[in-house]
Amino acid sequence: MTTQSVVFLFVLTLAAGFFALNVQRLVSYLHVGHAEGRTDHPLTRIRNVLEIGIAQKKILRDPVAGPMHALIFWGFMVLTAGTVEILVAGVFPSFSYALFLPKAVYAAYSASQDIFAALVILAVGFALYRRIVLHPKRLEGDNLEHTDALIILSMIMGLMVTLIIGTGFLLAAHPDAFGPEKVVSRPLAIVFGHLISPDAAMTGFHVFWWAHALLILVFLNYLPYSKHLHVASSLINVFFSNTSGPGQKGVMRYMDLEADVEHFGASDVEHLSWKNLLDGYSCTECGRCTAACPANITGKPLSPRKIIVNTRQRLMEKAPVMTNDRMEFLRPALLHGEGADAGAATVEEVMEHRLMDTYITEEELWACTSCRACVTECPVSIDQLDVINELRRNLVLTESRFPDELQPVFESLERNGSPWAFNPGDRADWAQGMNIRTMAELHEKGERPDVLFWVGCMGSFDDRAKKITVAFARILQSCDISFAILGQEEHCHGDPARRMGNEYLYQTLAKDTIETLDRYQVTTIVTHCPHCFHQMGNEFPQLGGNYEVIHHSTYIERLLQMDRVPLKTAEGTKLTVAYHDSCYLGRYNDVYDAPRESMRRALPVINLVEPPRSKDRGLCCGAGGGRMFMEENTGKRINVERTEELLATGADAIAVACPFCMTMMTDGVKASGSEVPVFDISEVVAGQLRS
Ligand code: SF4
Ligand code: SF4
C-alpha cells in the first residue's frame, strides 16, 4: 500500500463510520413510531420500485422538471458504479473493473461514466437556473431550504466536473489509459496536452482525483443533514408505500377500538407509524403535492408538503429525547423547511410541544377534502393523507375537537342513519310507483336478486340526487336486471363519519350495514355514489364485509357493451360535454374510462371535452373528507374554481358520476352565473332509453 492509499483508507473509514452513525441514528428515530407490517404484495412493491423509483414514472409527468430530475437520478445510478471503483482504487491503486469485465463491457461502462457525467452537468445547470432565475412557485421555501438545494446541486456539479476534468488530465498524461469511448474527456485531454506537460497533467489528475473522492465522502455525509436524504431513502419509501395495489388506494387504516389504548389516532410522532416517519425522511420538498392540493390552490391554510415537513421537524425535535441520543450536537438536522420552527431549547420544552397544535393547526386539518391529489402526485409515494386522517381521528376521538358544523352531522348519523336530519321512513320515497322490490319482500318469498342497488343517503333524500337514482333504476329495469333495494333497511354505512375522524361511529354504522347485507346473503352491489362504492368495496373487508361492489358507470358500460340497453337512435346536433372526475371514483379506484365510454356509447353524437385538470389530475369538487358538511369561509370556493375550469372548455353541459359532485357543480354553475346544465352519466344514458 502506498502512503496515499493509507491516508485515503483512514479518511474513508472516518467518513464511512460517521455516515453509518447517522444512518443508525435515523433508523433508531423511526422506532419512535409504532410498528406496522409493510411487506405484503411483494411483487407489487417491487413493480412500484421499478416503475415509480427507477423509471421515474411520476417524476416524468412534469414535462420540464421531470426529464431534468430523471436525468440526474439515472446519472447517479450509473455513476454510482464508477464511485465504487474510485473508492476501492483509492485503497488498492491497481483496482479496476477492467481486471474482470470483458473488454467490450468495460468500454461500455467507461463510456457511460463520461456521457452521464456530461448529461448530469447539463441537467444540474438547468436545475440551478430554474432555482436561481425562474423561481417556480412550487419550490418556494425558506432561505435555509433554498441554500440546502443550492449546496446539493453545487456538490453534484462539482462531482461531475472533477470526474471529467480528472479523466481529461489522466488521458493527457497517459493517452492509452482508456480507449476511444471517452467522448467527453478525450477532447479535454487533447486541449490539456497542448497546454501542459504530461507530468503536470498527472499532478492535475491526482489533485482532481482527491477533490472528487473527498467530495463523494462530503456529499455522503451531508445527506443526513439535508432534505436530499431522499437520495438514500426514496427507493426504500416507494417499496414500503401502500398506495398502488388494487383495492388498496386510499383505504384508511384499520383501528382496533377494543384494544387497550388511551390514545386514538395521533397527536404526536410516537402515535404515527414508522412508515409515516420514513415519509418525512423521503420528502424532497418538491411541492408537487401542495401545487395539486385543491385547498391550497384556493387559498386555504393547508399544504400537504408542510404536513410532511412538520412531521419530520417534530421527529427531529422529539426523537433524540425519546431515544436518549446524547450526541445531540452531531444529530442530523433536517429541521429546515416550510412551517413552524418550534425552537425548543430544553427537554421540558420539547416534551411540552407536540405535532398537533405546535406544528399543525386544526384549521389545516379540516381544510382537507381527502381528494388524494397529493398522494397521487408525490414522486416518492408519500402518504400525506394518512397523517391528516390520523390527526383528525385524535382530535375527534381523544379530544372531542371538531368544527361546530359536524356536531349535528354526527348526531344525525347516530339518530337518523344519514348525515342529514331526514326522516328515515322517507328513504325509499323516490321509488314510489316504480315497482321496485325490496330485499325483505324478496326474502319473504324465498327469492334473491342478482344485485343489490345501494342507493346511498344523497340518492335517497336529496331532491336532485333522487333524479339520478330514478334514472339508474330505469336503466336497470329496461335491461331486465334482477335487482332490489334495501329500502328503509338501508342507512349510512358510516363513510362520512370515518373521513371526519369519528371511527367509533363509522364502525358502529358499518358493522350494522354488514350484518344487514349478510342477512340477505348479498354478494353483488351496484351504487351510483363513488363514496359508497369505495367504502363498501375497499374498506368493508377490514370489518369482515366482502362483496363485489360495482359503480354504476362500470355497470352501465358493461350493459352497453353487451347490447342490453334498449337505446333509441341518437339524433340532433352534437352535444359538447365536459366530464368532471370524482376523486373517489378516479384517484381512489382508477375508474376513468367507464363514465366517458358509457356516455359515448349511449349518445354517439356527444363530443367529450377535457378540462386542463382531468383524470388522475382532476380537481376535487370540494365535498370529500366531510367538507360537504362544513362551511368554506377561507379563500375561493373549491367548487367555483372547478366549475369555472369546466365552463372554460366551452361545453354545453357538465357531466358527473357522483351525487356529491352533482351538488357542488350545480352550485358552482349558479355561482358563476351560467345556465349550463349538470347531468349524471346515468341521466345521459336514461335519456336515450327507447321507453
Ligand atoms: S387529500 Fe387533497 S385536500 Fe387533502 S391535503 Fe391532499 S391534496 Fe390537499
Ligand atoms: S410530500 Fe412528496 S410531493 Fe410533497 S413535497 Fe414531499 S416529495 Fe414532493
How would you describe the overall organization of this protein?
- This protein has 691 residues and is mostly helical.
- The chain has 4 domains: 31-40 and 241-401, no CATH class; 62-225; 406-561, Rossmann fold (3-Layer(aba) Sandwich); 575-686, Rossmann fold, CATH 3.40.50.
- It has helices spanning 3-30, 42-54, 65-91, 103-134, 143-173, 185-195, 198-222, 230-240, 274-282, 288-292, 294-297, 304-322, 347-352, 355-359, 362-366, 373-377, 384-398, 406-416, 439-444, 456-461, 463-478, 495-499, 503-519, 530-539, 552-561, 593-602, 638-647, 659-671, 681-686; strands at residues 451-454, 483-484, 524-527, 548-551, 575-579, 606-609, 653-656, 678-680.
- The strands form 2 sheets. The protein has a 4-stranded parallel sheet, sandwiched between helices. Strands 6-5-7-8 form a 4-stranded parallel sheet, with helices on both faces.
- Helix 26 links the parallel strand 5 and strand 6 (606-609).
- Helix 3 packs across helix 4 and helix 27 (638-647) packs across helix 28 (659-671).
- It is elongated.
- One iron/sulfur cluster binds at residues 283-289, 304-305, 308, 377-378, 380, 382, 384.
